[in-house]
Design goal:
With 195 residues, the chain is mainly α. The chain contains 8 helices and no strands. It is globular, with a radius of gyration of 18 Å. Mean pLDDT is 83; it is low at 1-8. It has a domain at 62-189: Tetracycline Repressor, domain 2, CATH 1.10.357.
Length: 195
């Protein structure tokens, strides 16, 4: 894995990582039970078995924890799909499209209880992480075009296409859909073409 890779876990002390995981798990349980608006920081801290000061040592508020939870769950999905592979090839790009399709499908079908009001937060997290992954790939491939613009176009395309696939509710698998849209997404990357 590359240093500073977007799918590399945060560099935290093991105790900090464990505490964040406890808080995240408690938060997800409470989210499923009573919804975001009804959850308090005290609820989360109590469920996690820590005090409020410990919560605030890790997160500003429950919105910060929500952002962290979305980021980490998507990061885990990416790690599973890309098998910690941080280089560009068409198969990794295909896996990335499938991961986004299936992750957004899971969110929409409430596998992870995210309320509709937080969809922009989910969108920002997914597009941001896609951008970072694709940017790393493009820089490795020594793309002569503007890697930032290409990464932006590809990340927005992948997210938008995944949402379209989710809305259409066709009986098309994520794998089949990824095969169909792969040339469209790859066209945004234009690897190796002169500017």
């Amino acid at each position: 894995m590359l240093p500073n890779s977007p799918i590399e876990p945060e560099k935290l002390d093991p105790r900090e990582r464990r505490t964040r995981k406890l808080l995240d798990q408690a938060f997800l349980e409470l989210l499923a039970e009573k919804g975001f608006d009804a959850i308090t920081v005290q609820d989360i801290a109590s469920r996690a078995g820590v005090n409020r000061a410990t919560f605030y040592a890790h997160f500003h508020d429950k919105f910060d924890l929500l952002d962290y939870s979305i980021r980490e769950s998507f990061r885990e999905e990416i790690k599973k799909r890309l098998l910690q592979s941080c280089h560009f090839d068409m198969e990794n790009l295909r896996r990335l499209i499938i991961a986004v399709c299936e992750y957004t499908q899971c969110l929409r079908s409430h596998c992870v209880p995210v309320q509709r009001q937080f969809e922009p937060l989910v969108e920002n997290q997914i597009k941001g992480q896609l951008y970072e992954i694709i940017l790393v790939w493009l820089k490795q491939a020594e793309n002569r075009n503007s890697p930032e613009i290409s990464a932006t176009a590809a990340s927005w395309a992948i997210y938008g296409l995944a949402m379209q696939w989710n809305r259409e509710k066709k009986n098309q698998s994520a794998e089949s859909f990824a095969d169909e849209v792969l040339p469209l997404v790859a066209a945004n990357l234009r690897l190796g073409e002169p500017t």
